[in-house]
Specification:
By secondary structure, the chain is α/β, with parallel strands linked by helices. The protein is built from 13 helices and twelve strands. The strands form two sheets. It has a seven-stranded parallel beta sheet. The protein is elongated, with a radius of gyration of 21 Å.
């Protein structure tokens, strides 16, 4: 850190108060800003052009993660050396890691996602738990999905728990928010995407779908609320309602685990002979 960089000691600093308010959804929406905490999230934000606005760092963190602080400065972010008390006041975690970034919203208009003709999409319908939302986003990123869609009945994408659970994947792939589930399904079907609803009571078995060779084309998986699944009216919109088979004695899978199984099944089918991806696809 430059010796000229002032240490923000007072939690009453205007910048500190502004950052602290971003823990609340209404302030995030008004300012179109959110918090990214920890070295992984801040590094990813710094690498996403135009996203990182400010970085608050303790002296210890600034020295330990000097490369990240340098990347933040190179990205045009204002960097503030902050006391541990200030970081604790801004952070939404029990044990802050010394780095908190303020980032611009980066959701993508749904129309742009459709224009890109995605081959694999995760649609979160009625998902209210921020940890689940962030983890499914991370699974979608790992499986090579081109987009994630959060319906208007789902949790705030920029909830601090969702951001943390995504472990940086929020900055990797396009995410559309606030899309009515009917519009999401209709739009994806309109660009040739098959809609599969993931539901433990589904009439179709994931293993059977793979055996039949029906999963090699462009696909969107619709995932619902972990506690009560997908409403009947949402299941009715899908081309098929698919259950993940339970071969052992477990009662069920949690949402994120089921999402990972489904997304990876599609990813593998799409990369197999006859699938919609080629070796040149990213």
């Amino acid at each position: 850190m430059s010796p000229a960089t002032p240490e923000l000691i007072s939690p009453r600093s205007a910048r500190v108060l502004a950052a602290r308010r971003l823990a609340k959804r209404n302030f995030r929406g008004k300012e179109r800003l959110f918090l990214a905490e920890g070295p992984q999230a801040v590094r990813e934000a710094a690498g996403h052009a135009g996203t990182l606005v400010e970085l608050f760092a303790t002296l210890d963190a600034a020295e330990r993660y000097a490369d990240i602080v340098g990347e933040a400065r190179d990205a045009g972010a204002r960097v503030h050396l902050a006391s541990e008390q200030v970081i604790a006041d801004i952070s939404t975690t029990v044990t802050p890691q010394g780095l908190v970034g303020v980032c611009r919203f980066l959701d993508t208009p749904f129309e742009e996602i459709l224009e890109a003709r995605p081959k694999l999409v995760a649609v979160l319908a009625h998902v209210r738990d921020p940890g689940n939302a962030g983890t499914v986003l991370r699974c979608a990123d790992a499986a090579g999905a081109e987009a994630v869609v959060l319906t208007d009945a789902s949790v705030d994408l920029y909830n601090p728990k969702a951001v943390r659970a995504s472990v940086g994947s929020l900055f990797h792939l396009p995410v559309a928010v606030g899309v009515p589930v009917e519009d999401a399904v209709a739009g994806l079907k309109g660009v040739g995407v098959r809609i599969l609803a993931a539901d433990g009571a589904g009439t179709d078995d994931l293993d059977d779908e793979l055996d039949k060779g029906t999963m090699g084309g462009p696909t969107a998986w619709v995932f619902g609320n972990e506690a009560w699944g997908l409403p009947e009216e949402t299941r009715a919109l899908a081309d098929a309602v698919v259950r993940v088979p339970i071969h052992g004695k477990a009662e069920s899978l949690n949402l994120a685990t089921a999402a990972a199984v489904c997304l990876y099944a599609s990813a593998r089918a799409q990369r197999a002979s006859g699938g919609c991806r080629t070796v040149t696809d990213s």
